[in-house]
Amino acid sequence: MQRDLGDRVYGGLVGALAAASTLLLLAPTLVVLIISLTSGMTLKFPPPSWSLRWYVELFRSPEILAPALTSLRVASCTTLFSAVLGSAAALGIFNSRSRLARLLDALFMSPMVLPAMAFSLSLLLVFNVIGLRLSFWTLVLGHTIVCVPFVIRMVGAAVQQLDPTLVTCSLSLGASRWYTFRRITLPLIRRGITAGSLVAFLSSFDNVPVSLFLADARTEVLPIKLWAILEGSLDVRVAAVSGVIVVITLLGLVCAEALGGLSRSFGKPSP
């Protein structure tokens, strides 16, 4: 009887903490979504009345659409490079048990450990020392460096679930390494690549520190533009942009789950 009571109390405490944590995580997003539906002229919560006027106004604003398209281009290029480099690195690191592989793993993860501002400033100084002028591609390079670790972790999880005997059998039957990779390894880790690419895209699209230091005067990205707008006024279009990003992120996660079955992939070992 006492044990059942203790289990119920423990379950209640855990449930209450989980609910409080969930509310703490979701509250800022919900507040922004609610504010974006205001009919007022400033960011005010709760809104005086409801309207979609700021979403309509958003798509009529070239000063926001142009940086959004630039961010989309940067994020797309970053995702492509991160997927290729991160997948190759994950295959090399997680298929090896040498100390060099562990050292390389720590090296690739360093951008996630270092403070974002300090890392971005250091990267700017490196570009200055080697004489590389800031441009669209330096921004893509900086984003790629900070996004590759996400792909490595996601693909690494898929590689660790990969049965090595499948590769061994393919090679022993006369298949080349490229054929084995293309027909066996790649299909089995594609969900990890999909998940890593999605996280890399989202991380690049709204990255502020790297964009702040490595973007040139002609490459204006959306996060920096929104920051500049908020410094001058409480423009409701900023909340509308945030609402669009939240909706796109949720749709991306749903599509990734429907197409790739990411939760099933990482929830149990691959067959």
Please explain how this structure is put together.
With 271 residues, this protein is mainly alpha-helical. It has one domain: MetI-like fold (Orthogonal Bundle). Helix content is 79%, strand content 0%. The model is unreliable at 265-271 (pLDDT under 50).
Reading off the top of the CATH hierarchy, the class is best stated as Mainly Alpha
Q: Tally the beta strands.
A: 0
% residues in beta strands: under 5%
**Count of domain modules:** 1
**CATH architectural name:** Orthogonal Bundle
Largest sheet: none
Distance between the termini: 43 Å
Helix content percent band: over 70%
Low-confidence stretches: 265-271
Q: What is the string of SSEs from the N terminus onward?
A: HHHHHHHHHHHH
What's the name of the CATH homologous superfamily? Answer: MetI-like
Mean pLDDT: 82
CATH fold name, please?
MetI-like fold
Rg is 23 Å
Q: Rough shape?
A: globular
Summarize the model shown.
By secondary structure, this protein is mainly α. It has helices spanning 2-35, 53-58, 62-94, 99-113, 116-129, 136-160, 164-172, 177-205, 209-214, 222-232, 236-260, 262-267. Helix content is 79%, strand content 0%.
